[in-house]
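Figure 3 (text version): structure tokens given as input.
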């Protein structure tokens, strides 16, 4: 079954027995089949140190099982009881400015603290022993949205030992970090302090290594939780990740997890100046990142059926938006749609957060829309297990972004990384292709087109892999501000993008930062190889490449670099490469990829899609499932070629705003 349901926290109304009956009646009515429980229940489970009371959870799971509702069972480490930090203050975090925190909120434990690790291990094992074979439970939901960092003495010590394991000696570290600058030579690993606003915040290599350590330590903490639940249970494990979260490199989590899940809260109707085409694309790009982590279906673990309460505006979802957002996740590889949350909280910080059920007890618009969505998910059951297999990949690397955004220059007012990435992505999607958004370590062999947008850091070995991808016949597209530094944020000597000047037929020379709002214009070279004829705008950052054997496609139209190439093409062995030296407007990427598809005989999923209509394809079990979705805000008449195949969802030939058609081919 497609999982359908969400986070359920009934310990909040533990005294009111009628609520559970009422909720279950409504769950059945909406077709709910799965809930995630126990996420924030620790103080109920262990009211005093060492005294476990699982009675409420046990009767809840029994009841859910009787009702045919499955459970993602959470480990409760996301929020701890008060007694724990009162008795063991070491579990409290220390902030980067070295202030020690006091009890409050959630997601705030020291992930190094042996005490916290031990308390979590004990309760996780106890839960696993008690419920690891419970018939209602289908998966482990490990903790909740791991994140943040701790600078306590325990973490400092762990950081030192971790560094020690990574370098031959302290002088090796000093050299790689370029510590001769400002006379910052360290004489031992123990003398290194984590980055701080009251100390060292301007050593890029230190900042980068600290972030890597935070990821390492969090994964290590998670692995201990996984080991604890595995003691008595072999159910699949996941942890819920967040949108574009830069506190951790999520790629490092993937190997420990059986399936990927993430929490998605797009600002429909208000984000990107209310342009839902951009919201939809931005969101899809995130789904594609999580799917590509394992090249397998993922689970949309949280999403909001109504309005959130923490965004600038609690903007209600217009008719159809909840369904469109949910089916967008499915179109991109989710085998389920789960919400935060099943029922409105009565009090507390999230009491105004949207939910499937409210406290009125009445039939609501949300319930009606959820019922329809439930029926559509049931109709999509054969899609389960299939996956998107795009011909295009886009590399997105959190480590590179840490380094790029942590550096001073070339544009401290904003590099517009995600905006640039989204333009590339939209160009692929509007040309009718699906895309994988991949880490630099991902295998490239399935792709015809590989895009490297603003990949500032090339980790060891990447340039060679990009070279062979192109040499073997791939189409490589590299944009500005790529291949500049190594893993320690030191500039590569010689020509850059590092290792690619032969492949691209040029080198990066100068880079110009433009004012906010300022634009240059590009002029097509007559008879250029891509057949581009329009003038496009470019902005934010403009590189001036020194071109050797590449063919200019577009030239800058203004400024002192007027007439110099901004887009080039270069044949390299069996493949071809393109260099895009500035942040180009959205239309350019549409025209670029449409031309590449045409010239290289690549078969798109759908042709001639109007802006805001997206096509995706899930493949498997000898079938292809085509999803067409309309985020354009207008009715779209679909041509007969698009309507081909057995219809699973949708009627007629007009795709209305926020509607989804699904075909089996
Ligand atoms: C998520 C979190 C949930 C809830 C939700 C509200 O980030 O995991 O527990 O707080 O946000 O949108
Ligand atoms: Zn700590």
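Below: residues designed for each position.
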């Amino acid at each position: 079954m497609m999982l359908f349901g969400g986070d359920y926290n009934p310990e909040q109304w533990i005294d009111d027995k009628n609520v559970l009956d009422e909720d279950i009646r409504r769950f059945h009515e909406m077709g709910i089949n799965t809930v995630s429980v126990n996420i924030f229940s620790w103080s109920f489970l262990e009211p005093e140190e060492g005294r476990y009371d699982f009675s409420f959870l046990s009767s809840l799971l029994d009841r859910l099982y009787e009702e045919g509702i499955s459970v993602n069972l959470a480990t409760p480490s996301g929020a701890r009881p008060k007694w724990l930090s009162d008795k063991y203050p070491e579990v409290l975090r220390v902030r980067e400015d070295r202030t020690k925190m006091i009890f409050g909120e959630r997601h705030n434990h020291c992930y190094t603290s042996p005490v916290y690790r031990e308390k979590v291990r004990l309760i996780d094992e106890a839960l696993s022993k008690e419920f690891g074979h419970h018939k209602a439970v289908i998966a482990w939901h490990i903790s909740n949205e791991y994140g943040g960092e701790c600078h306590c003495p325990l973490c400092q010590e762990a950081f030192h030992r971790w560094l020690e394991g990574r370098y031959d000696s302290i002088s090796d570290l000093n050299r790689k970090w370029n510590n001769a600058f400002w006379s910052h030579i360290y004489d031992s690993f123990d003398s290194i302090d984590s980055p701080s606003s009251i100390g060292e915040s301007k050593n890029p290599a230190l900042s980068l290594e600290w972030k890597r350590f935070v990821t390492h330590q969090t994964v290590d903490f998670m692995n201990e939780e996984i080991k604890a639940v595995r003691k008595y249970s072999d159910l699949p494990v996941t942890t819920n990740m967040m949108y574009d979260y830069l506190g951790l490199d999520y790629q490092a989590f993937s190997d420990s997890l059986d399936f990927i899940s993430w929490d998605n809260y797009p600002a429909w109707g208000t984000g990107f100046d209310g342009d839902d085409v951009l919201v939809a694309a931005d969101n899809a790009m995130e789904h594609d990142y999580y799917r590509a982590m394992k090249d397998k279906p993922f689970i949309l673990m949280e999403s909001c059926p109504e309005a959130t309460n923490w965004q600038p505006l609690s903007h209600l979802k217009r008719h159809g938006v909840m369904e469109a957002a949910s089916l967008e996740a499915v179109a991109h590889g989710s085998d389920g749609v789960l919400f935060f949350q099943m029922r409105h909280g009565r009090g507390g910080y999230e009491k105004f957060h949207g939910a499937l059920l409210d406290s009125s007890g009445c039939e609501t618009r949300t319930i009606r829309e959820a019922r329809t969505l439930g029926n559509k998910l049931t109709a999509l059951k054969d899609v389960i297990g299939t996956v998107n297999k795009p011909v295009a990949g886009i590399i997105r690397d959190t480590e590179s972004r840490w380094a790029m955004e942590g550096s001073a220059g070339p544009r401290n007012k904003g590099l517009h990384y995600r905006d640039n990435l989204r333009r590339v992505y939209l160009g692929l999607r509007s040309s009718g292709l699906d895309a994988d958004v991949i880490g630099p370590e991902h295998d490239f062999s399935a792709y015809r087109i590989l895009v490297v947008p603003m990949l500032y850091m090339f980790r060891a070995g990447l340039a060679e892999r990009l070279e062979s991808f192109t040499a073997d016949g791939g189409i490589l597209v590299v944009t500005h501000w790529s291949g500049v530094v190594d893993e320690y944020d030191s500039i590569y000597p010689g020509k850059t993008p590092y290792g690619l000047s032969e492949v691209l037929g040029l080198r990066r020379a100068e880079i110009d930062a433009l004012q906010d709002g300022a634009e240059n214009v590009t002029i097509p070279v007559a008879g250029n190889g891509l057949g581009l004829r329009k003038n496009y705008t470019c902005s934010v950052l403009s590189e001036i490449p020194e071109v050797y054997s590449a063919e200019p496609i577009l030239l800058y139209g203004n400024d002192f670099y007027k007439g110099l190439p901004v887009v080039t093409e270069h044949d390299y062995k069996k493949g071809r490469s393109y260099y895009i030296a500035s942040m180009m407007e959205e239309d350019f990427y549409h025209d670029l990829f449409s031309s590449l598809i045409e010239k290289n005989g690549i078969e798109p999923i759908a042709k001639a899609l109007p802006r805001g209509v997206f096509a995706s394809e899930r493949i498997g079990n000898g079938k292809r499932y085509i999803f067409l979705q309309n985020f354009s805000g207008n009715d779209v008449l679909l041509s007969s070629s698009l309507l081909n195949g057995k219809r699973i969802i949708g009627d007629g030939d007009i795709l209305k705003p926020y509607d989804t058609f699904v075909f089996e081919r």
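The pocket of zinc ion (ligand 2) is lined by residues 110, 112-113, 150, 152, 154-155 (CB under 6 Å).
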